[in-house]
Amino acid sequence: MKRKFIYYAIACMLLSINAMAQLKVSGRVTNASDKTPLPNVTIQIKGTSNGTITSESGTFTIQVPDASSVLIFSFTGFTSKEVTVGNQTNISVALEESASQLNDIVVIGYGSAKKSDLTGSVASVKAEQLMDRPVPNVSQALQGKVAGVDVNINSSAPGQVAKVRIRGIGSINSNIDPLYVVDGVIGVDANALNPSDIASIEVLKDASSTAIFGARGANGVIIVSTKRGVRGQTRVSYEGNVNVSELYRHLPTLNSDEFVKTYNLAFANATKFDPDHGTWAPDKALNHTNFPLLFDANDKPLYNTNWEKEVYKPAISHSHYINVQGGSEKSLFSLSAGYLDQDGLMTESWFKRYSTRLTFDNDVNKWLSVGGNVSVISSKQRVVSESNGALNVPRMVSEEVPILPVKYPDGSWAGNNDIAGLEGGPNPVHIAQNRYTLNNNLQAIGDAYLNFHITKDLDFKTDFGYNLNSTKANYFSAADLPHLSADQGGVATITNNTNTYWQSENYLTWNKKINERQRMTALVGISFQRYNNENFNTEEQNFISDFFQYHNLGAGSVRQTIGSGDYQWSMNSYFARVTYNINEKYLFTATGRYDGSSRFGENNKYAFFPSVGAGWNISQEEFMKKASWIDLLKLRASYGISGNQEIGQYLSQPQIVADNTPLGGANASILLPGYIGNPDLKWERSLQFDAGLEFAIFNGRINLNLDYYRRTTKDLLLQAPIPWSAGMRTANVYQNVGSVRNSGIEVNLQTVNVKSKNLTWTTNFIFTSNKNEILNLNRGNADIFPGPNFLGQTNVLRVGQPIGSFYGMTRLGTYSTDEAAEAAQHSLLPGDRKYIYNADGTPYYSIIGRAYPKWTGMFSSTLKYKNWDFSFDIRIVEGVNAAATFKHSTEDRQTLANSLKTVLDAWTPEHQNTMIAQVRSYKFTQDSHFDTWWVEDASFIRGQNFTLGYNFPESMFGRTKINRLRVYASVQNLFVITDYSGYDPEVETFNTTYGSNSAFSQNLDFFSYPRPRVWNLGVSLGF
Question: Per the similarity annotation, which family is this (predicted)?
């Protein structure tokens, strides 16, 4: 017993000595230039993995072993600093800004690296840059942030995502979206995330950086890193904003008096264009006798409805986000929750999203770390602007006649069908309330990892990621909507899609410092991926009552369609990367990935995707030491191959399809030849060369990044036509035919113009120029017309021309009375549209525009004075066209619907110098053609974002727990300077589905959802 007591006393003594040896150090970290506190600064005890980070007020507390301990203070954008503790118990540290950001850590595939070590073209965007304006998703947040990344916000409908294209269009029939990687989970829909959860985004643009993703990296890679836990005191932050959207550009249509005058004139002019020169009049004249509810006793219209005002109303949206972050020396955690309620400018359109995210990281011991994260996102979207080309809401805003009210005094809906002879579309308010799709989406994204620290240089990480996505689309169209669903007695459809994806990533990473001059990082790994889809859809018609909508399909008496299906694809990959650094001057990278995919033919299941890159930090050379004003001068170049596998499933295999046919007086199930298959089908290959220059001078006051790239995509996955006589339901087969080249330059110039104690002024200019050219298509290089088809072909694929070339006729104007003989050669009259014709009299077609710009730019500026800050972004897009195809039904159909005010400039005997044909009854309207009058110059200068903010001084908060409070006001889309006549020059209505190749529908506008101006108030709070 006595011996045990002695042992116990000795143990207590040793513990006491150890506790006494520990020193408690506190302090504060500030910005050396303006003395403001710096939160989230990493403080590490040199030679150990122990450390902490500063609070929102820049303070910290840390236990160190003894007085000889050295603390390393590091923070993104600032020069790191080392401080020996000595006899200090309170340490104040001021960090110097380093605009060159050479030591910034950027995320790359399967790891991270210092920016100064990169040989590839990688752009990094931090959270504070992404969230400088309220945006609902990742793709919209990226617009104008990265050179070489073209972001088109084609629809402003709530919940819609933007189209992101990196360094041009490199494919024709394959998917052209970049690959998204969220916290290591590959191929997920990052746009489902709450943008407030994002810590940073890295955009991988060249082959040196994307080849590690092999067969899925050809369109570029966007790596999203979300917020994780932090060491030290638990902190809570809140972000909230409320905004109002308003319509600020208009598409003027005829008012009631103008409509009646034009309507009557059109019938009067019909005699001229009638080959029999008959007399024409409406079925019922527009007067009080025939329409007592629409005209007064003097035959004046009772109503002058502005349908634009009835449909596009100011909309209020708001979002809220709360985040809790904390941790100890060994464990980190974070928990966040967000809510977005986005109302659309178009009545009855809205989007709601609920999100929550949990992360956990733990150092179990010296040789094992574990962690993971899970996000759950639930959203609902009410879509009322769908069905392009049909009598949908945005179309009826322009075509509904103004002499009609929204509702008659008895409460019944008014519509064009109330007037005999008009195209009987319901009024747009009626459609918006009684025809819509409700998209319900539930998504879970997450991963779990084990990281084994085998030696001080060698780690093995195994990561399991998953993505579960369930989508249910409920569609309803009421029985009282003429020409839409009245004939069917109402229509309801339910479509279910359930997608499951999992991946297993396993890799060794060896970080070896060979000697004082050389270090190397080597990576080798194996990956397994699998994707499953199950889908179901059914449509019912002829409902006993609209009350049931899609809630009870059994209430419909006609089953129109029912179908289901499922498919899978899987991949197996092997990858490796080696980076070598010699004396911080000479940098080398070699990457390879060997991919196998179930999507391709038996003869081409696997392919190898290599890349090499090199960099030269010239500023580190001895002969540059005297040029102290040069902070960085770096040259880099890379070349490599990445792939594209994003096509449908089973296209290498012959397929049969099920169908029904009448047989013996009853429907019988049959099997038909569906698709011929191609066992030699393989990946598209994207071969890319990139050369870059990075330049920083005057202690980071001027930073310049230049890139030149040349990317050639070969073995295009092209739908080659086959004869119908082959007997296949699908009259084409995927083949690897043709090639496309994208080449261009990228410029990113950052300057610090003024930097003093109270005032800082910085600017940023981004410039991108891309040239796209089809090199070859098929064996004969014949033109391909990929659609969409609108009164004929709209696009052509032609060797030597870019993808997105508009194809149509050239309108010269209208025939004058002096040109009657010339008009007669084409069976036309004075007042008809005049086109260029071939020598044989046939219509002449040519390339008449381009859907993608020659160059784009963004000019941003930020001014900070004391606690105030003001910033703005101006976006410039030049050398691009948009097709205002809505002119077809609003300039050429005067007796069917309302028209644009431009028809007031139509041909008359007194006014013959015009592009718009003489108005006449629709029975004698000249055929419309996709032509140069529709394809307009869509270049623009947009006031993208303007923000004014104020940071309340910390001294105001006293003893409260609040340590940060910022309020701001901003406006998006303040102005747009353009010659385009539609609502917005950046538009797409023919194909707005995210994840599809819509290269040929970009900038085709057939009644779009207008882009609003958005006024926003926001607050950022930390405690």
Answer: Belongs to the TonB-dependent receptor family.
The phi-psi region of residue 781 (left if phi > 0; otherwise alpha if psi is between -120 and 50; otherwise beta) is: left
CA nearest 42: which of 14, 16, 70, 80? Answer: 80
Cα distance between residue 975 and residue 497, in whole Å: 40
Predicted local confidence at residue 386, as pLDDT: 74
What type of residue is 683?
W
* DSSP per-residue letters across 172-203: SSS--SPEEEETTEET--GGGS-GGGEEEEEE
- Phi and psi (nearest 5°) for 421? 100, -25
Q: Cα dihedral sign for 931, 933, 934, 940?
A: positive
Whether 143 and 136 have beta carbons less than 8 Å apart is answered as no
Return the residue matching tokens 């290599």: 610
Task: Tell me if 309 sits within 8 A of 246, measured CB to CB.
Answer: no
**CA 127 to centroid of chain Cα atoms:** 17
DSSP 116: G
Indicate if the alpha-carbon torsion angle 199, 205, 209, 215 is positive or negative: positive
| Of the candidates 520, 371, 546, 526, the residue with the CA atom closest to the CA atom of residue 457 | 520
Question: How far is Cα 184 from Cα 461, in angstroms, rounded to an integer?
Answer: 12
Nearest partner of 440 among 192, 180, 138, judged by Cα: 192
Tens-place pLDDT, residues 161-175? 888 999 999 888 888
For 988, residues 6+ apart whose C-beta sits below 8 A from its C-beta are 152, 154, 155, 163, 998, 1001, 1002, 1003, 1004, 1005, 1008
Q: What angle do CA 1010, 1013, 1018 make, to 5 degrees?
A: 135
| 921-978 per-position pLDDT tens digit | 988 988 889 999 999 999 999 999 999 999 998 778 777 788 889 999 999 999 999 9
List the CATH code of the domain at 3-95: 2.60.40.1120
- The pLDDT tens digits of the residues spanning 358-397 come to 999 999 998 999 999 999 999 999 999 877 778 899 999 9
Q: Which residue has the higher pLDDT, 95 or 288?
A: 288
- Backbone phi and psi for residue 263, each to the nearest 5 degrees, phi listed first: -60, -50
Q: Tokens 């991988």 belong to which residue?
A: 204
Report which of residues 717 and 253 the model is more confident about: 253
Burial category of 6 from C-beta neighbours within 10 Å (exposed 0-12, middle 13-18, buried 19 and up): exposed
Q: Which of 504-508, 573-577, 624-628, 898-902 has the lowest mean pLDDT?
A: 624-628
Residue entry with tokens 């972000």: 239
Residue spans per domain, the chain: 3-95
3-class secondary structure per residue, 528-555: EEEEEEEEEEEEEEEECCCCCCCCCHHH
Instruction: Count Cβ atoms below 10 Å from residue 84 Cβ, excluding itself.
Output: 12
Can you tell me the distance from the alpha carbon of 630 to that of 811, in angstroms, rounded to the nearest whole number?
57
Omega of the bond prior to 65 within 30 degrees of 0, cis?
no
Residue 622: phi and psi, rounded to 5, are -60, -35
Q: Please give the model's pTM, rounded to 2 decimal places.
A: 0.88
Predicted pLDDT at 405: 97
Amino acid 668: pLDDT: 82
Q: Identity (one letter) of the amino acid at 804?
A: G
The DSSP code sequence of 281-343 is --SS-SSTTT-TTTB-TTS-BS----HHHHHB--EEEEEEEEEEEEE-SSEEEEEEEEEEEEE
Query: What are the structure tokens assigned to 756, written together?
Result: 């003093």
Is 29 exposed, middle or buried, given 0-12, 13-18 or 19+ CB atoms closer than 10 A?
buried
Q: Are 54 and 40 in contact (CB under 8 A)?
A: yes
Please check whether residue 536 is in contact with residue 496, taking contact to mean a CB–CB distance below 8 angstroms: yes
Residue (of 827, 693, 833, 851) closest to 772 by Cα position: 851
212-270: pLDDT as tens digits: 999 899 999 999 999 998 887 888 999 999 999 999 999 999 999 999 999 999 999 99
pLDDT band at 53 (very low <50, low <70, confident <90, very high): confident
CA distance 42 to 95: 12
Please check the confidence at residue 55 and state whether its pLDDT lies above 90: no
The alpha carbon of residue 609 and the mean position of all alpha carbons in its chain are separated, in whole angstroms, by: 27
